[in-house]
Amino acid sequence: MQEIKKYVEENKERFLEELFQLLRFPSVSADPKYKNDVLQTADFVAQKLKDAGADKVEVCATAGYPIVYGEKIIDASLPTVLIYGHYDVQPPDPLELWKTPPFEPTVRDGKIYARGACDDKGQFYMHVKAFELMMQTNTLACNVKFMIEGEEEVGSSNLSTFVKENKERLAADVVLISDTSMISMENPSIETGLRGLAYMEVEVVGPNRDLHSGVYGGAVANPATILCKMIASLHDENNHITIPGFYDKVAELTQAQRDALNSAPFDLEEYKKDLDIAEEWGEKGYSTLERTGTRPTLEVNGIWSGYIGEGAKTVLPSKANAKISMRLVPDQRWSEISDLFTKHFESIAPKGVKVTVTPHHGGEPVVTPTDGTAYLAAEKAIQESFGKKPIPTRGGGSIPIVALFEDVLGIKTVLFGFGLDSDALHSPNEKYDIYNYYKGIETLPLFHKYFAELSK
Question: What is the pTM of this model?
Answer without folding.
Answer: 0.87
